[in-house]
Amino acid sequence: MKSNGGLLTGGASFVGRRRELAMARKALIHGRLLTLTGAGGVGKTRLALQIVEHVKGAFRDGVGVVELGTLETGELLASAVASALGLRDAGPDPMNVLVDHMSGKRMLLVLDNCEHLCTICARFVDRLLRVAPRLRILVTSRQRLGVYGEQVLTVRPLAVPDPARPLGEIARHDSVRLLQDRMADVLPGFSLGAGNACRVARLAQRLEGVPLAIELAVARLRTMSLDQLIRELDKPIDVLAADTCATLPRHHSVRATTEWSFELCSAAEQRLWARLSMFPAGVDLDTAELVCSGDGIDSADVLDLLAGLVDKSVLCCERRERGLRYRMLESLRAYGCERLAPSEKNLLRGRYVDHYRQLVEGSQIDRMVPDQLERYRRLQVELPNVRVALEACLSTPPLTRVGLDIASALWCYWLLAGSLIEGRYWLERGLGLVREPGRTRATALWVDSTLALRQGDLVIALPRLEECLDLARRPGNEAVLPYAIRTAGVAAFSSGDHERGLALLQESLALHRAGENLDGVMLNLYYASAYGSVGHPGRAAEFGEELLALCEMHHARVSRAYAQLALGVARWNLGDCRRAEALVTSAAMFTGEVNDRWCLTQCLEVLAWIAGAREEHWRAAGLMGAAHALWQAMGASPERLWYHAAWHEHCREQARRALGGRAFATAFRQGSRLGQDRAVSYAVAG
Predict the structure, then answer these.
(1) Mean pLDDT across the stretch 174-196?
(2) Beta bridge partners of 327
(3) Checking phi first, is residue 555 left (phi over 0); if not, alpha (psi -120 to 50) or beta?
(4) So where does this one cross the membrane (predicted)?
(5) Which of 266, 406, 588, 668 pairs with 188 at a CA distance of 20 to 30 A?
(6) What domains can you pick out in the chain, each with its CATH number?
């Protein structure tokens, strides 16, 4: 969800807006909520990100930028913002996580593209401002939120000159400066001069100084002269084609230029533009070929068509680790949606859903494979597109089972990403629709129970689990039984019955071994090693050693870090401080690098215990403080975890007695202010 600013923020330079920047800086000093309003394409996002560059030094706790244009439902707003800020919504209410995280922080939160969620965004912003007195919020939207204390800065088109004025006066206008900058990219060596100033000013005037209109129009200079471009733009276009335009007069130039750009595309480019509007997170080449080809688009032509749309500034091209990715600015995607006929959308829906079903199934993280981390990152990028597939499935009766299967297959992603609220949102919607007592429902029940247990929600988890166990024992659902029993084991630990919990985990492990399910064995070994480390540390260490060996054999790096953590806790409980420290330090280094906060936080906690055992009580208090900041950010606590609770309390009391209350509080506070990167460096320094 973190914004990259879209098409107009890519490597292009920022032009003008000095007055708006000064006003915004003043507004954020004297007020707490600033909303940038204006028509689509006027440059609100670019201005917001430029404001961030100017004011970020004033915010000790940083700036969070959250792109909401790809979020289709307001019900996921709080969890989406929490996820974008790196928080794990481990409690049943992600809003509480955000409140706890922000209540004492001096930070700036930027919410970009809020207009489609205006009402719920208003309630969300109002609550945050009430509970976080040092928080400032910057919003971009086509309309104001209407929240008490809101300051509104209307972002208007760039100033345009009179073509009859002298060159020096024309050159001072921001619209001309933007045109000159973009034209130089398209026409190397271009510069504004006496011979072309009048025509450039005429172009700026025709485009009404709207940045998106300028971007789209200048792209045409690759295939036509400046005079031809002006003549084309002077042709009459029905700028009131869309109903919304009647209420947004300043949107006319964007609408007209977008319409004109669309008409200048080939028929195949037009079709691809419309079809790509289905993808809020953009696409790679393979996806575009698989989903968008056919019925007027040959798959062999897709690459050339994408290149044509990039040349026309309809798409922006981003280079990622896995190759090029093509994205569309929200204004252009909305226009593309208008041009996608319902019959064509229905035709594409099946291919879209099938593609993302296969992508999710092929990117499951709970597999003993070398590319676990790459799978996780792939799902992070594709999540907005997967949400569209989930919504399509759960809104179309013949596809509801497919939607529930997709939501269940994402279970490990929901855990690692800390997106428990979102995972349960899709699962419970699907469970409400898929009532047949088959494998799909049984699987979703143990997944939903697992997420609920992580949230500490036993009231929901236990009935779901009971139904799951019943279904798993019916003919045809036998494959679900080991997962149901494993989840029951975790539930027993969560309820305080560690003997029954370990027995159930061992029962599930035996079933996975009998079925030669290596992935199931891996997860059972982790739970048995971690949860069993307090009551049966010797047996837990055996599970952990086996798990670590499996992970190293299969180069499963994400699972390896969890194996090191679980084995480290078991070795700690056996009194092997040196081995425990080596294992947990290695896990902390990896999880800090890949930003896996769930594992990292536990590593910091264990390293605090080890420091305390060495009578390094100041260091122990500092590490506990660093861990506390992350526990708090995730809405979790060591007291909730069976294998952490007792040692956490022992370490804290030991350090407090050794240092005294005041010194302990100072060390703890200093650790809590380190921030994640410095906390990792401090932890692994030894």
Answers:
(1) 91
(2) 316
(3) left
(4) none
(5) 266
(6) 18-154 (3.40.50.300), 265-340 (1.10.10.10), 351-538 (1.25.40.10), 598-685 (no CATH)
